[in-house]
Design goal:
This protein is an alpha+beta fold. It has 2 domains: 4-75, no CATH class; 154-283, Heat Shock Protein 90 (2-Layer Sandwich). Helix content is 51%, strand content 21%. The protein has helices spanning 52-116, 120-147, 155-170, 180-185, 190-208, 246-255, and strands at 21-31, 34-44, 173-178, 212-220, 223-230, 259-264, 270-277. The strands form 2 sheets. The protein has a 5-stranded mixed β-sheet with strand order 3-4-5-7-6. Helix 5 packs antiparallel against helix 6. The longest helix is centred in the N-terminal third of the chain and has 65 residues, at 52-116. The protein is elongated.
């Protein structure tokens, strides 16, 4: 471009005083048919035009930048793969080791309770077995969460799958309403969002006594919002303390630059709303 400052295709930030640009070269940073971005080299106005001799080293620089970007993307994928493989290993060891051991202990305690007859000892043993059952259930939920982490699947599909598995496991009717464009824009945060939803659904299962719940991802006022609401018994958030795990949810949301709002009341159900700010790279 002989004078980029006069070209209507050049973006100018409203109300920002910036130096006037003159001649410019714009080069794509692409691997095959996949475009990674663009590189712009400009001279301030008034400036002399670029020559053919100057174009060659600029092209070489663009090629080197493309290699660096592709290398970074590949390394990031390898790191993600390592994390997913580690999660699968942990989930397998918990299922095959810890859960089976706990189950065996529970069976032994039940047999001991039967020999103890109707006594305080039998009652205490029964309470211990119930507690073991609860721990086993929590471990299975944790394993479910580990195995629900994303690999190559899209956030939209993963949320539908997570909701379907939760419904099958808990018996709570789970409706999913996802804006596919927003889900695609938040794909790079998919693992964190899945973990948020998993923890919120776990709270529904443990506390809400709900018959139905809904998982929503939508856009409003330039931001993305994730909601998990239910028709359960509800509670007074100011008197709930840390039982709902709100601090954990807030910490997860803060890692995404967002915040959490909790609305509930006795016999009014519960609505967990997570603000997920969209940046200019999101649709």
């Amino acid at each position: 471009m002989e004078d980029a400052g006069l070209d209507e295709r050049v973006y100018r930030s409203p109300g920002v005083d910036a130096p006037s640009i003159g001649p410019a070269i714009l080069l794509p940073l692409a691997v095959g048919e996949r475009n990674l971005g663009a590189m712009a080299v400009v001279r301030l106005a008034p400036g002399r035009s670029f020559t053919a001799d100057e174009l060659a080293p600029i092209k070489n620089l663009a090629a080197q930048a493309t290699v660096a970007l592709e290398y970074h993307r590949t390394q990031d994928q390898l790191r993600r793969l390592a994390v997913l493989e580690d999660r699968e290993r942990i989930a397998r060891e918990l299922h095959d080791g810890a859960i089976q051991s706990l189950f065996a202990v529970g069976m032994s305690l039940q047999a001991t309770a039967a020999m103890a007859g109707a006594s305080d000892v039998a009652v205490r043993i029964g309470a211990a077995v119930d507690e073991l059952d609860r721990v086993i259930k929590e471990l299975r939920n944790y394993i479910f969460g580990l195995r629900s982490q994303l690999s190559a699947s899209q956030l939209d599909d993963a949320l539908h799958k997570l909701a379907a598995e939760f419904q099958e496991r808990s018996g709570v009717l789970t409706i999913v309403e996802i804006d596919a464009d927003i889900a695609a824009g938040l794909q790079r945060h998919a693992e964190e969002i899945i973990q948020l939803v998993r923890e919120a659904l776990s709270n529904v299962s443990r506390h809400a006594r709900a018959t139905s719940c809904r998982v929503s991802l939508f856009r409003q006022d330039g931001n993305a919002f994730l909601e998990v609401d239910d028709d359960g018994v509800g509670f007074d958030p100011s008197a709930a303390g840390g039982g709902f795990g709100l601090d954990n949810l807030k910490q997860r949301a803060s890692l995404l630059g967002g915040d959490v709002e909790l609305r509930s009341g006795p016999d009014s159900g519960t609505c967990l709303r997570v603000l997920l700010p969209l940046d200019r790279r999101d649709p």
